[in-house]
Amino acid sequence: LTNVWDGASQFIRKNLQHGRGVKIKDLGTFTFSEWTTNIGSKTIENKQPTFLMSEKLVKFYNLKTRVLYTTGKTPVVALNFATIAASMVTCRQMVEDCVTEITEAFLRLLSHNEDVEIPFSNIGHFQIKNKHVIMNFKPNFLKNDKTLQTSETKMADEFKGDDPLYTSSPVVEEETVQCDPCEPQLV
What's the pTM value of the predicted model, to 2 decimals? Predict the structure, then answer.
């Protein structure tokens, strides 16, 4: 479960680094908050990553969020289970089931008015504390685009599954591993 969530986090990070938002069904969307600042005759464009929790959840659970300004110009992709599965050498259905389980566990805790925290490796932590929605990005993630671009190569290698942390199953030689969603899978 942890390895799949780490793979999902890497997918989100990679897309944010390429200027795309990522929607996690039933939870919310990682995107960018954008605004301009006028200083004298100069206009400075500001852009920083943000997480917009699903409005449906905010209203249903009576949560409090900050007002975030987004232009709607940032392209948004859905969390791609097949891409994450390929990077981890596992099946798509297992990835979808793990992400669904994490989302459902999150919703169960919310329904009991529990404080909740979801870590996104190499991105930050999403929290609901005393009904306040908080997304804390890691300081190194918020650095300027040039820093993100220089770390992109290392992150791309991790995303491919070269790092044992992101590999959930041993390498099987000369055997094709197929995933049948009806059969139980080892995690």
Answer: 0.72
